[in-house]
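so my prof wants the structure for this chain in the tokens format not the other one, which i didnt know existed until like an hour ago. anyway here's the sequence
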Amino acid sequence: MSPSRNSLPDKGIRERVVTSGAPARWRAESALAVVALVWGATFVVVKQALTGISTVYFLAIRFWLASFFLSLIFFAPLRRIGFHETARGLAGGAVAGVFLWLGYMLQTFGLRYTTAGKSGFLTGLYIVLVPLLGAAIYRRWPRMSELLGVALAAAGMAILTLPGFDPRTQRVNIGDALTIGCAVAFAFHLVTLGFVSQRARYEAVVLGQILCAAVLSTVSLLVEPPAAIWNRQIVFALLLTSLFATALAFAIQTWGQRYTTATRTAVIFALEPVFALVTAVVLGGEALTWAAVSGGGAIIAAILVVELKPPSRG
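here's what i got, hopefully its the right format
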């Protein structure tokens, strides 16, 4: 049997991966790919819904509904583990939730001043930032295969999200700066979630981060007052995203990051725009371009590269 996390010696802060064997890693990373699929597939639904409801209002309702669903799903296990373990997980999750909320807010307000293509590319910088941040915190560089996967994923994101970008006519503005801040926040979220998910009950961590994001999104309504023209499309989008793209997706992510590294998670999540593109082509009638094919191919190649070897067992 592999040693438990508590039996591992601590020499400073180290990134840990639950060492329960390769099958657990494959299940976890396959589940993370499913999360990217859900996020990518629901992009079109969210985009259409946001034409009738303000963004922060949508996010606040989405996170509160997700908190409600998670409370129902995890009521029994949280009751079994007791108050102290639950409180510990909620506190750790709340820290991750701050970065999650901050990423959404910076991305949302950044979109007001920059293009969707630049926003997608700059947000994708978190793929590069995660291994750098992890190396700074844990004082250990990722494997060479993971760094190569990061480079391929970043290149794929650039090809997918920056078609027709002309640096001579498009300069960095406040929207770009806000979106870069969004990428930093998402990178911190991935690294923080990977840390706390291995040191507390993941059920409490999941609920803690979503509750925190719900509270902070509600406070953010002071900046962007709620506005909506209610219809079936908005209601459907809220139910779909709150249950599947938030409650279940973040539950799977938190569980999955116990068995893999933040760097590998970031590379796997680069699949999100690929799935969003496929959904847009199949359901939205968008044209499939060579840039889309080559960008998606680079991201898939990145996934294959990082899956050649298991993560370090540090």
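also thought this was worth mentioning. The chain has 13 helices and no strands.
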